[in-house]
Amino acid sequence: MTTFEILENAKRIKNSVAVMSTEQKTSALINMAAAIEDDCEAILRANTADLNVVRSTMSDVMLDRLALNAERVHSMSEGLRAISKLPDPIGCVLDEFTRGDGLTVRKETVPLGVIAIIYESRPNVTADAAGLALKSGNVCVLKIGKEAFLSARAIVNAMRKGLKKAGVSQNVVSLIEDTSRESANELMSAVGYVDLLIPRGGKGLIDACVKNAKVPCIQTGTGICHVYVDEFADEEKALNIIENAKCSRPSVCNAMEVCLVNRNIAESFLPRLHARIVSGRYENPVKLKLDEDGYKILGGWSGCYKAEENDFDTEFLDYVMAVKIVDGVKDAISHISSHSTGHSDCIVTENAENAKFFTRSVDSAAVYVNASTRFTDGGEFGLCGEIGISTQKLHARGPMGLSELCSYKYVVTGNGHIR
After folding, report:
1. Quick check: 250 pLDDT over 80?
2. CB-CB neighbours of 240 under 10 Å
3. Closest-CA residue to 110 (of 382, 402, 413)
4. Residue 30: how many CB atoms within 10 A of its CB?
5. How do beta strands 93-98 and 104-111 pair?
6. List of residues 6+ apart from 376 with CB closer than 8 A
7. CA distances from 191 to 147, 173, 186, 188 (A)
8. What is the C-alpha to C-alpha distance for residues 82 and 111, in angstroms, rounded to an integer?
9. Which residues contact residue 127 at a Cβ distance below 8 angstroms, ignoring those fewer than 6 apart?
């Protein structure tokens, strides 16, 4: 089926999906979850086929993004079940008032319509996106990179079986079959068919969509996330946070990429940092890219290199971290303002005034005090998944759950009123 035919089908059913009852959506989501588990073996076979094609050309951390196992497939199903239990976001009254002449004005939530998502090598996004879109009364059109196409197709085929069993149109979720850039361009220019475009992936994909899209587009994903270790930090706490933020899953957008260290503690802290995430890690030690002052302290140590020009503007998505020594909280904020992508940034400090100043001054979607940036996630924020993490301010910011997939309209009721 061509991209245009898929979009036509999506547009044709969007009004009927918008008025589905909560019970219909719940039934569809539960059946989709069961169908994914029933098709687990087929999904894993497809994923193995994808992995076999790219294994020799993709890094281990990126292979981890692509890889599925029985536990991850089960997590997709559980995610859909969790979404099914959330309150229905459609038809909620956001505001209502009655004028002096008796005219009633009500503001209520409505679906956006057709949501298109372009994403790369994370097949689990397939189920999250479809589930959140359906629960919010939207139709979902997915385009995944060729590296994960077989995996996504198997997941979509399973979910469509669940939709059919629930008596819901299978066109509620569709996968673009053309993996070329041309189909991405079609989605970007599908005025009148796509109500919102969400790119999820690397900087190149997001920049291309933001620059070229003729349809409304949410800027998401790219995460040059910072952790600033203040002179008043609990250093053991800082080491735990950094190790988690950098090493627990470096291939995701909420992993930290830059460590800023206060000059007053740098000589004592950097050797401890090296011991924790470089020499102390026998598997996947982190490579440190240090600024000039940092290199004076750790230069010649294993895994330590001079930072290059673009290292503080790079989303490494790997066991690599840039390190810079700063003069204080204001200097840290200045650096973040110049280099952050507005995703997630953290201060580690026991000084309440510095923490307050940092959170008020750093203009990112999520700002942390003494906690890992890895928490920037729809599930961790209680949204039961996410369709993306917005790094812009209109109309959504941070993890995008159900409420961010809704718009609103005014319903005005009168009794023969005229103006």
Report:
1. yes
2. 15
3. 402
4. 18
5. antiparallel
6. 254, 343, 344, 365, 366, 389, 398, 399
7. 28, 19, 9, 8
8. 20
9. 32, 36, 76, 77, 79, 80, 155, 159
| Per-residue b or e along 284-313, where b marks 16 or more CB atoms closer than 10 Å to that residue's CB | ebbbbbbbeebbebbeebebbeebeeebbe
Tens of pLDDT, residue by residue over 10-66, are 999 999 999 999 999 999 999 999 999 999 999 999 999 999 999 999 988 889 989
Round the CA-based radius of gyration of the chain to a whole number and report it. Answer: 23
The pTM score is: 0.91
The burial of 52, by beta-carbon neighbours within 10 Å (0-12 exposed, 13-18 middle, 19 or more buried), is given as exposed
Buried b (16+ CB within 10 A) or exposed e, 367-382: bbebbbbbbbbbbeee
As a whole number, mean pLDDT of residues 390-418 equals 93
For residue 204 the two structure tokens come to 């190149």
Assigned token pair, 207: 């920049």
* Band of pLDDT at residue 353, cut at 50, 70 and 90: very high
